[in-house]
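Submission sheet (multi-component)
Chains listed below:
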Amino acid sequence: MSDLILLRHRQIPDLNQLDVYRQHGGFEAFQKAVTTMNPYAVTDEVKDSGLRGRGGAGFPTGLKWTFIDTENWPHYVVANADESEPGTFKDREIMEGNPFQFLEGVALAAYAIEAAEAYVYLRGEFWQIADQLDRQISELEAAGLLGDKLFDTDYSLRIYTHLGAGAYICGEETALLESMEGKLGQPRLRPPFPPSYGLYGKPTVVNNVETLTNVPLIITRGADWYNSIGTEKSTGPKIFSLSGRVNKPGNYELPLGTTFRELIFEHGGGIPDGRQVKAIMAAGASSSLIIANDEALDTPMDYESVPNVGAQLGSASIIVIDDSVSIDWVLRKTLHFFSHESCGKCTPCREGTFWMKHIIDRVHQGEAAWSDVELLNEVALQIKGKCLCALGEFAIEAVTSGIQRFEPDFRAKVSESSDEDELLVESEKA
Ligand SMILES: Cc1cc2nc3c(=O)[nH]c(=O)nc-3n(C[C@H](O)[C@H](O)[C@H](O)COP(=O)(O)O)c2cc1C
Ligand code: SF4
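Outcome: structure written.
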């Protein structure tokens, strides 16, 4: 097995102990940055590496850091450890197994944007990880790796954890910031974006846990080393969270550009019970349903290629659906989730997710007519492009792609009798 970069704890026992982490070069990147590099040089190295945000959108990380408003102070870094997307469980493994590399990444981001305070925002269910990080942050302070006047320079940094209350929407960066400020976790109207108006109205960089965990090795080994991994535009390693109908679900760290086929069949051990793979969701519940034909299976999992099969890579939470599953069941699962998690701030998402849930329940129970399936699709299309944040868009991905690409599953659910009943009602009205 080649050397892992993010899940190094699988190859180095006890890497979550500070002394072991330091024996393996831990905090050398941070010390090198603070003592020998100016903050812009750190940002430039990350820019040159091609690192793109692993929270879902794939936005270039170094470029985001350059957007920070240098006319307005103080600056903050917030690590997004909300990890609420169904099917995503990579940040948790990083924070439990390789926490110091993550914290060093937070420290490097803070130095790059000249922030003296950084926060880790964790979903409420991660309270044990928050306790563990608090202890590890204290160890770093005791070792002189966090605190005042670091390495005898004028640079000081403190890191704090902050627990949410387990709402999916608080993973959206502006809802997260509202939640940190003690307000209701609902997205802000954007622009302004966090690099100009973030935490407490101050310039803030929000990055995902996995994104930040890449940074220490980019600084020690260099941008050229990093961008030799992956594809030209999607550089570096990625943790693919594999779940659903596979023999060996779990996190797999592989270069961006690895095919779905390699992940599912070589690493994931294929489909149980000799079944066929029918559909793939690449971005957790927020994903379009990809028809799992040869073209899709041979598609590289990177930010440019996945759209060719009608989906997005997102957080790379690969959910495998086999031919024992009817797609209306999948839609029912996703719509119950999104209806529950809609924050209610804007009408198309709040009402739309509620009504889509009710329609899919009827379809799933075999109590719907084909016109109900059409209505479901129509409601989804009415939501499209009309919401304040991306949750509304996420909620319709599986609906529109599922109905369009797996129509026979819905036809099979629609009872002929209900179509006839409906026609009868229409003719009675006439
Ligand atoms: C509804 C919703 C939920 C989100 N949940 C998460 C999350 O749990 N973790 C995360 O890192 N990003 C999440 N994001 C993306 C963040 O808004 C933001 O883009 C990301 O944290 C930026 O980090 P990156 O540039 O390192 O990817 C979510 C976005 C939306 C719209
Ligand atoms: S799209 Fe949904 S989750 Fe986002 S602000 Fe509107 S109601 Fe809230």
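Remark: Residues 8-227 form a domain with the Rossmann fold fold (CATH 3.40.50.11540).
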